[in-house]
Amino acid sequence: MRILVIGQSVRNIALSAFRAGHSVVAVDCYCDLDLFEAVEAHRLPVEDLLDADRINAIIEGVDPDAVVLGPGVETIRINGYSVMNNSPDRILRVSDKLWLARWLEESGYPHPDTWDRDPPDDRRMMLKPRIGAGGCGCRIFEGGAVPPGYIAQEFVEGVPASASVICDGSDARTIAVNEQLSGAAWLNADGFRYCGNITPLDVDEDTRKRIARIAEEIVAGLELVGSNGVDFILTENDAVVIEVNPRFQGSLDSVELSTGISLFQAHLKAFEGRLPEVGREVRFAGRAVLYSSELIRIDHDLRRITSCIADVPTPGSVIGMGEPMLSILATGSGRDEVMSSLKERRDALIQGIQRKVS
Prior knowledge:
The chain is of the alpha+beta class. It contains 9 helices and 18 strands. The strands form 4 sheets. The chain has an 8-stranded antiparallel sheet with strand order 13-12-9-10-11-14-18-16, sandwiched between helices. Strands 3-2-1-4 form a 4-stranded parallel sheet, with helices on both faces. The chain has a 4-stranded antiparallel sheet with strand order 5-8-6-7, covered by helices on one side.
């Protein structure tokens, strides 16, 4: 099939489609080296992301068999083409953390207490954008009125985790349960910002199965289609559901490296009512997103410094402080081996970049 993948950053989705044997056109705001070298790729100005007419014109120009909308454009309505996403209305509803909190509560799933006004002042709280992803804008709530467009949510202490789920609208299969990295200082990620995954989550089999089952029930109950994710906090006593992501997730790389399953192909088949067979993970795998600690200009191919990196910026790219620089990938026989490899490659990158800059 001729597939168009379009969004703010689509390298992981587009290359998954390419590895599955499809003819891929990718349009995003970065055109990273590893994307550009593998498929037909075009740069999209950031200001065009929310211009529905511009997005529809790009699609008409490519004339694909199917469209996959990535980050930043998932709720735009497309005319006359097969779109392999959840509907815009369903995405907006499920992405609304206040609506989801009420749905989870009514459905009996453990979820933090959530308020859009007048939260109690005797609990530790998080302040979150009502609609948002990746931990951006999340912070400890200092009290007072909840700002418009935000929610206050009870803070839950534990291990961040996620489940990667394929659903056909009524039945679901969990492909993998993952550890989620957030706010990691060694990746220059501040606050609660998403910065990667380790697959599988390094817990006992019964715990993984319980998380997988809950995630399947939730995604099927919400009547989602294709690749979707459910975020949890694993406490000493429970797996607390935090949010549902009705889209491809940042864990795509680690899930595919760990399981050997093509998430894009599983996503595509789900729209035909076909769900994948699920086996055991082949290995541990990780993806870590390295953020820039300063304003920096990239003047060379960073793959010369170390292997196993992705989202590689093109020479000449200027990366602002706090912006994502690239992704680091690793595989191994256990979590410790994966983390060690990720950190070694991170150190090599930082040292190599500093030498070039100096």
